[in-house]
Amino acid sequence: EERHGSGSKMPLVPSFRIKLEDQILQGLATVGKFDGKNPCLTCATSGGKIFVYDPYSRRDEQDTPKVRYLNINKNITAVASGRLDPNIGRDILLVGTNTDVMAYDVEENRDVFFKEVPDGVNAMVCGRVGTHNQQPLAVVGGSCNITGYDADGEERFWTVTGDNVRAMALADVTGDGSNELLVGSDDYEIRVFANDDAISEVTEAEKVVGLAHLSGSRFGYALENGTVGVYEGRKRKWRIKSKNRVTAFSAFDLTGDGRKEICVGWSNGKLEVRNQETGEVVYKDSFKSPISALLRADYRQDGGGDDMICCSLDGEVRGYKTQGALGGAGSLKDDEFMDENVKEETLVELNQKRQDLLAELKGYERNTRALYNAGVGGETETTGTIPKDTKVNSSLEMNPEEGCGEVLLSTNNDTVIKAAILFSEEVFDEEARFVYFPNPQRVAKVAIKPKKDSAADVAIKVLVSSRTSSTYHVFEVDFRLPRFCMYLPLKALPQVPASSVQVRIAERLVKIAKWIDDAFMLQTSREVDDYSEECGCHMVCLRDSKPLSIRAVNAGDDGCDVVVHCDDMDTCGEVIQDMTKALGLGNVECTADFPYDMERLRETLTRVDGYNALRSRLVTDVADASNTIKHLVIRAEDSRILKDWTTMKRMYGELRDLNRELIREHQKRVENHEALLAALREVNQTIQKAAKLRAGGPKTKMVAACRQAIKVNNVHALFKIIQLGADLAEQTAGFE
Fold first, then answer.
1. pTM for the full model?
2. Between the N and C ends of the chain, which has fewer C-beta atoms within 10 Å?
3. With contact defined as beta carbons under 8 Å apart, do 211 and 249 qualify?
4. Which residues fall within 8 angstroms of residue 474, CB to CB, at 6 or more apart?
5. CA-CA distance, 110 to 104, in Å (whole number)?
6. Other Cβ atoms within 10 Å of 264 Cβ, number
7. Which 8-state DSSP code applies to residue 588?
8. Rounded to whole angstroms, what are the CA distances from 83 to 146, 152, 193, 546?
């Protein structure tokens, strides 16, 4: 495990412990006041069941057991709770599965609402969202979309994301008094939604599995590869990576300083509490099984405030209060609470530091002996020293033959580069790359090929020495990789792409040319002034060989018309978003023409209709088979009572055959559902790509209009909205 910081790591002191008989599945736990007063721990367990552990129920009441079970009989994928209906004064339990979401009133033992969700449910939160804060919503994250339902089960909120939603959190990030929605998804993106609009996006190196708000625009995140860290807006403050998997993630003030700490549960059963400023571990604990959930609630209601509740897979539950308030490990001497495991870990760390210092000392001694043997005027090749003014320079070049970019490293004298280590999560799958040069020269090249168009920081350690020396000097170089670094400029395109997007922006041609230079490492602005009529560039992507053309035409007092030609809608969206951000544009509407994407969307929608029709038929067939089963069971039992063994055997034989048929039908339903899910994901991703062609109000309106068109199955209107935007599509097609 990579460690961040060297402060003391004190063991946590639990304020209470509970050992339950049932397993607690990962991420499927919540605490709700279902009677309006007493908090109950509610968790999903094996067999499609949910148990409600109520420590306040009286043991002598036989009709109110301490643990109650709810049989969902489906694969449970998300669990949450909250005051969905403030009028009833108690929390509602929310349960999500692969096909639906249910709001359940535990106190009255009844469904509040039940909604089919073809996209599935991956994550849920309950609360007020943006200007929808007049009423709480059950916010459901599915396959490339997010939907909010009110207490009546009516859809009040809908937007799209780039991939499956894995983590969500509600918080006032902008300080405007309304909650924004933080969303982490499988496309490595962390987005912040204000109402239906994504106001901020951060690209990470892996799937996002956990989000926790800290304060203001600061939030913590966790990735599938074991990375956890903190962002302040779009700027990362710190991160660490573990060989273990993050299984629970939250934020809680355990030190009592008024600032939340990052709380992480790991697959090896370790619980860590890290300082939000530095990432230093301040508290730790361990369980015998993986951590399943980290929750927050005033569980004991003892007047001491909220507890942080940690649940493990084997049913062990521990509660922690602010450690200073308990007079716990944070306020007493280390050896009063350090058990043997903690002492052993501390000794291992100190021994490792000792070995590192000894190795460093031996290196100094070896260099000192070499200098002494060579004398004061010893040659560079003998002593391993290099000139004091040695520097390492870096630059970027394109290599069309290899289809990649190359980072050029060079020294400013006769020293040579023998090896280089490059670190970047965004560029390398393995996060780091070591390159050894068998024939070292002054100039070295390292091939890079980012998978996505996103700016990235590359930390480079360059090993420099004289040509014959075995002693290396390490130079650290920070290199900024531009967002569109994988595009090679061309004088002209062999064929202009058939797809394009056109926007009019209120900006001068000179500024647009300057943006093109900064984004694509060109020199377009040299030939552009305030009197120029147009500017532009032609490029080809080294990643997939797709051409890209950008042309800006002066439109006088109205600004400029910018046309982007590319057969990849996603690439066009990235270009428009980068231009919008760089030029500080607000509302941007466009005219989009993507014939290939629209044809694929038409085919996908046709498949969706087919899958829905097949699903309806399969449901009908199962209902008919269920009636037949009832009839056969009754006849078989009647035959048994009458001792008509021949008829009874025949009835049970027919039941066996029908059961086999039902199993086959179930497999068909599973396959049809998976195909439907994939098709709906394609539809949502197309809408999300089309939304990135716009900015501000037009973007939000387009997403809402697309949702309405899909609801009423108006394919023609959907295509018009993607092409022209919501306002113009309504004017030209009369869409409502």
1. 0.79
2. C
3. yes
4. 461, 462, 463, 464
5. 6
6. 28
7. B
8. 20, 13, 22, 51
